[in-house]
C-alpha cells in the first residue's frame, strides 16, 4: 500500500484514515493531534486533542480551559485505531513535537510540524526520528536563507543598547517562543538588567518561568518614561498600534528569520533587524534530509517547489502537499 493510504492532505489538514485523526487541522475536527501551540497549527474547537502536556497548557492559556471537548497529554507511545503514535522534540518552541506514525502494515511517517536544529535555551532540542516518509516544513526552503548565529545577533542588540543608552529598544517577537528565546539569549549574553514586557507576551512568558526556565528580572512595560534606554519585548502586532507612539524616539527592532530579507525590514520601518529564527534554514533543511534519507519527502508550507527540486536532484522522492492555513504569523 502507498503512504497516501495512511496519511493524505485534505482541506482540513493531514488526515490518517486508519486512526481517524487529523494532524494540525485548520478547522474543527472530531480528533486532532497537535504538534505545537502556534495559532496556525493549534486551533480551538476540536472534539478531542492529543498533544504534549506543555502544548495543551499553552493552548489553555491562549484559548481558555474549554478549548476542546477532551484532551490527552502525550506521555509515551499510544495506539489509535491500529496506528502507533509517539511525540518527539522538534526544537521549535516550548512543547513542540514531531509526530511519528507507525500504522499496521504501512510505512513509518514522521510529521515534523515546525522544527529547528539550532540550540534553543527555552525548549527541548530537535531529535532525529528515522522514518520512511518525512513531512517537512519549508518556511525558509530556498538557498538564500542561511541564518546567522543567534548569539551574534544578540550581541548586535546589546551593542545598539550601549550606543544609544537613552533610547528604548523595542524588539518585536512572537508571543510564544520567540519572545522568551530573545530574553534567554540576552541573559546568556550577560545582560542582567530589567527587561520590560508588553502585556500580550506576559502570560506566556510567566508560563515559561513556571516551567523552570530562568528569564531574570522581568517587568511590565506600562510607564514608558520610566523605561527609556531599556529593553522592551512586544508582539509584532503592537508596532501597528498606538502603543508604540508612547515611546520617545525608540529603536525599532524585529527578531525573525524574515529579517534576512532587507526589503521586509525597510517596509516595516525596522532600524535594527535581528535574524533570529525558530525554523530550520536551507542548510539545516538539506542536512536533515541528507541524514534521515527517507524513502519519501513531503513538503508543506513554504518554498515547497524549491525544496522538492533539491530532493529530485539528490535522488530523493518528493512531493509538495500544498496545504493552506499555516501562514498566520511571521514566527
UniProtKB/TrEMBL annotation:
PANTHER family: BLL1145 PROTEIN, CLEAVAGE AND POLYADENYLATION SPECIFICITY FACTOR FAMILY MEMBER. It comes from Paracoccus sphaerophysae. It comes from the Bacteria. This is Beta-lactamase. One of its GO terms (molecular function) is RNA endonuclease activity. InterPro entries: MBL, RibonucZ/Hydroxyglut_hydro, Xnuc_lig_assoc. Signal peptide: none annotated. SUPFAM superfamilies: Metallo-hydrolase/oxidoreductase.
Amino acid at each position: 500500500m502507498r503512504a497516501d493510504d495512511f496519511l493524505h492532505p485534505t482541506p482540513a489538514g493531514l488526515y490518517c484514515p486508519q486512526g481517524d485523526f487529523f494532524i494540525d487541522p485548520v478547522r474543527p475536527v472530531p480528533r486532532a493531534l497537535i504538534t505545537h501551540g502556534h495559532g496556525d497549527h493549534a486551533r480551538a474547537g476540536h472534539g478531542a486533542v492529543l498533544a504534549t502536556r506543555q502544548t495543551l497548557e499553552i493552548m489553555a492559556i491562549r484559548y481558555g480551559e474549554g478549548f476542546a471537548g477532551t484532551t490527552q497529554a502525550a506521555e509515551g507511545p499510544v495506539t489509535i485505531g491500529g496506528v502507533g503514535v509517539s511525540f518527539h522534540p522538534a526544537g521549535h518552541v516550548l512543547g513542540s513535537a514531531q509526530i511519528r506514525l507507525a500504522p499496521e502494515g504501512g510505512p513509518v511517517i514522521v510529521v515534523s510540524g515546525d522544527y529547528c536544529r539550532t540550540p534553543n535555551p527555552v525548549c527541548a532540542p530537535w531529535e532525529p526520528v528515522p522514518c520512511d516518509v518525512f513531512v517537512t516544513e519549508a518556511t525558509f526552503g530556498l538557498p538564500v536563507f542561511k541564518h546567522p548565529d543567534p548569539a551574534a545577533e544578540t550581541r548586535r542588540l546589546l551593542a545598539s543598547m550601549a550606543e544609544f543608552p537613552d533610547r528604548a529598544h523595542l524588539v518585536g517577537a512572537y508571543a510564544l517562543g520567540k519572545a522568551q528565546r530573545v530574553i534567554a539569549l540576552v541573559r546568556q549574553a550577560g545582560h542582567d538588567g530589567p527587561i520590560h514586557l508588553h502585556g500580550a507576551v506576559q502570560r506566556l512568558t510567566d508560563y515559561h518561568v513556571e516551567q523552570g526556565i530562568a528569564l531574570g528580572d522581568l517587568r511590565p512595560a506600562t510607564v514608558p518614561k520610566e523605561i527609556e534606554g531599556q529593553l522592551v519585548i512586544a508582539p509584532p502586532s503592537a508596532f501597528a498600534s498606538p502603543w508604540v507612539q508612547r515611546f520617545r524616539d525608540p529603536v525599532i527592532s524585529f527578531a525573525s528569520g524574515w529579517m534576512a530579507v532587507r526589503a521586509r525590514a525597510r517596509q516595516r520601518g525596522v532600524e535594527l533587524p535581528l535574524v533570529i529564527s525558530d525554523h530550520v534554514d536551507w542548510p539545516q533543511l538539506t542536512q536533515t534530509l541528507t541524514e534521515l534519507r527517507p524513502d519519501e519527502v513531503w513538503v508543506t508550507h513554504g518554498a515547497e517547489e524549491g525544496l522538492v527540486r533539491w530532493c529530485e536532484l539528490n535522488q530523493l522522492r518528493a512531493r509538495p502537499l500544498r496545504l493552506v492555513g499555516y501562514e498566520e504569523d511571521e514566527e
